[in-house]
Amino acid sequence: MITFIAAVSKEVLLLGRDRAGLLVLFLMPAILVVIITLVQENVMELTGQSKTRMVFLDLDDGDLGPTLYRQLATGNLEGIVWDKKKHNAAELKAAVTAGKYQVGIVLTPGASARFHARLTEEFRNVPGEPGSSQAVPSVRVFFDPGIMAGLRSGITARLQMAAQAVSVEAKMKNLERILKTTMAEFNIPKGFSPLPEAGLTDLLTSPLLTIKNAGTIDNEKEYNPVQQNVPAWALFGLFFTAIPIAGSILQERKSGIRIRLNSLPVSPLLLMGGKIGAYIGVCLCQFLLIGLIGICLFPWIGLPSFTIGAHPLGVGLIVLFASLAACGYGIFLGMACNTYEQASTLGATSIVAAAAIGGIMVPVYAMPGIMQHLSILSPLNWGLTAFHDLLMRDAPLSEIFDDLARLSIFFMITMIFSWKLAKSRL
């Protein structure tokens, strides 16, 4: 035990001297998790997954404005009503063009009067006569030039649906009024009335068919980029510890320290275990740093807070097994390469590639079919899938055992190959 502690202390001492390497190990994933999460949050807003900021200016002051705004507010639009005494259409257009709002809506003066005149004239027309001569009132809409085409189309469709709903509601009310007046003129008893007790408008808004998500539960979670990115980029940082591990082994081999260590009456496995123990400590500190950023910093910059959920033990196991896999890969690189340049180039390239196909940078479901099949080969995908099962799907601890088994098998395979390469170099 004393020898193991001494081996760990040696590795920690060497790590402490490489301050630039430690800075990269801790600073790189910390910066990436903040930047990527902020970008994804903004992309969610631009694609309509989060509330879209809308500014509404009613220059009409009739009953049409509140009715239209009520219909719009039922969608995924976060509305702000501007006072026409303080603002005008030009200011609204400038604010939307500057990106302060994604969409701006202006109801022109006289819109309510034209709306009701058009409605009255439509009901006066009879078959064979020309249609209404009244101009259809229009709503002016301004879009932020920076929003995506898909979001623009979605907002336009939502506005058209709101306009259609306002029109149908007004026609139903007018039709109900005309029917009641006609029945009163001809003294028709209420028992013979074709109108429902609730009225035509309520009859129209009462659905006959509803759509319900079959997987909906009381505490159903929505997609949270924080729960995705904190473990993802923590895993990315964990596996980058393979490069300093490989560098440490190559430095020992180049300086002759490895020969002197092998001559000591100590098992080589114990010395290698000290190296693994030291770097597992580094990996745990890396994850702790990224987790604290998600818990403390993200709410301060307007992002959701990172939560571990009901399985902190499972999270710890994932970090531990992912750290073992990263250490095993680093030892394999140190044994397979002849120079630090080879190890750093091969290590960085392979880790970035494994992160790309493993779902760290792009979700697996968004990849082409062949890439989705290849993702199962990435150790980072195993760790990320385990994190998703616990943090986003609230799966039981037993659901991650297969991913933990894959990580442990990867560690054992890399250690076996490393041992064979070390034996061949003797």
Features:
mainly alpha; 4-stranded mixed beta sheet; 426 residues; 4 strands; single chain; D-Maltodextrin-Binding Protein, domain 2
Kindly describe this structure:
The chain contains 16 helices and four strands. By secondary structure, the chain is mainly alpha-helical. The chain has two domains: 2-44 and 225-425, no CATH class; 50-205, Periplasmic binding protein-like II (D-Maltodextrin-Binding Protein, domain 2, 3-Layer(aba) Sandwich), CATH 3.40.190. It has a four-stranded mixed beta sheet, sandwiched between helices. Strand 1, helix 3 and strand 2 (77-82) form a beta-alpha-beta unit. The longest helix is centred in the middle third of the chain and has 37 residues, at 149-185. It is elongated.
How are the SSEs placed, and which strands pair?
Blueprint: H1 2-17, H2 19-46, E1 52-58, H3 64-73, E2 77-82, H4 89-97, E3 103-107, H5 111-124, E4 139-143, H6 149-185, H7 200-205, H8 225-239, H9 242-255, H10 257-262, H11 268-300, H12 312-336, H13 340-357, H14 369-374, H15 379-391, H16 401-425
Parallel strand pairs: 1-2, 1-3
Antiparallel strand pairs: 3-4
Radius of gyration, in angstroms, nearest whole number: 33 Å
Number of helices: 16
- Share in helix: 55-70%
**Approximate shape:** elongated
DSSP summary, beta strand count: 4
Structural class: mainly alpha
Query: Please, how many domains?
Result: 2
Distance between the termini: 27 Å
**Adjacency order of strands in the biggest sheet:** 2-1-3-4
Q: What do the pLDDT scores average to?
A: 78
Detail the poorly predicted runs. 215-220
Series of H and E elements:
HHEHEHEHEHHHHHHHHHHH
Largest sheet: 4 strands, mixed
Strand content: 5-15%
